[in-house]
Description:
Elements: H1 3-13, E1 17-19, H2 23-29, E2 38-41, H3 50-60, E3 68-72, E4 77-81
Parallel strand pairs: 1-2, 2-3
Antiparallel strand pairs: 3-4
Amino acid sequence: MPDTAVMDMAIIDQRILLTFDGDHGTLVFKDGYRPIGVVYFRLDDYLPEAPGRLLLELSAVDWQFVGYITVVEEELMRQRPIPNHIS
């Protein structure tokens, strides 16, 4: 499924997009897509349980995911606001 179709589905369904694909950031910052949020797992060599563990860690932090692209790495999490996001 093309990245644009995945992004369109997330926007229509008002869902935060969980992805391993960095191209979704390009869709937001260069192409003007406005999802409610994106969580990008930027992991290189990882064990199969790592994404689930990191997702559990995300659920325990006091961060806002609506209106942000959140980049999750093994030792780092960072956020950048989605431009012109309307909550």
